[in-house]
Amino acid sequence: MRRWMAGVAVTLIVAGAAPQGHHSVAGQFDETRESIIDGVITEFRFINPHPFVVVLPVNGEQSWRFDFDNLSEFAAIGFTAGDLQVGDRVVVLGWLARREANRLYVMRLERPADGFGFEQIANHPQLFEPR
Questions:
Q1: 79, 66 in Cβ contact below 8 A?
Q2: Is 7 a domain residue?
Q3: What's the angle, vertex CA 48, arms to CA 116 and CA 127, rounded to 5?
Q4: Is residue 70 part of a domain?
Q5: How many domains does the chain contain in total?
Q6: How far apart are CA 82 and CA 103, in angstroms?
Q7: What is the mean pLDDT of residues 43-70?
Q8: Fewest Cβ atoms nearer than 10 Å: which of 4, 34, 90, 104?
Q9: Residue 46 pLDDT grade (very low, low, confident, very high; cuts 50, 70, 90)
Q10: pLDDT of residue 28
Q11: How far is CA 85 from the centre of its chain?
């Protein structure tokens, strides 16, 4: 019985630790390598645990995937699924992925048409108000 309980305890500890490593921003993205991409949204997923957009750069290169922080933080600041739409032009500053091409973590996103945007400041997301 003790072996069984010890096995369950180890399984729970390992299972609980795995998502933290998977969602580590520092583990997936390199804060020393920034990039700015100007493009048009082709897909926006407002999903848990991390919303993301897919953008086709205006220069016609391959699409990029831009990952945001967690969904609950977005909801807390009033960011909604309707705030970004397919076809919106956005300018994004972010950290490049460590192991994947054409992927970055969004530090700042702005929609030039009206100034709406999002910025990650010291682990505190903020929305810009439209001009």
A1: no
A2: no
A3: 20
A4: yes
A5: 1
A6: 23
A7: 92
A8: 4
A9: very high
A10: 82
A11: 16
CA dist 25 and 28 (Å) reads: 5
pLDDT of amino acid 56 = 97
Task: Find the mean pLDDT for residues 68-72.
Answer: 88
Q: What is the CATH classification number for the domain harbouring 41? A: 2.40.50.140
Q: What is the pLDDT of residue 124?
A: 83
CA dist., res. 29 & res. 36, Å (int) = 15
* Confidence at residue 26, expressed as pLDDT on a 0 to 100 scale: 67
Compute the half-sphere exposure of residue 38: CA atoms within 13 Å on the CB side of its CA: 4
Contact status, residue 35 vs residue 91, Cβ threshold 8 Å: no
Q: Enumerate the H helices of 1-131 as residue ranges.
A: 2-22, 25-28, 71-77
Can you tell me the distance from the alpha carbon of 131 to that of 91, in angstroms, rounded to the nearest whole number?
16
CB 28 within 8 Å of CB 105: yes
Residue range(s) defining the domain that contains residue 61: 26-128
- Please check whether residue 18 lies inside any domain of the structure: no
Least confident of 1-15, 17-31, 76-90: 1-15
Residues 6+ apart with CB under 8 A from 60: none
pTM confidence score: 0.77
Tell me whether strands 103-111 and 116-121 are parallel, antiparallel or unpaired: antiparallel
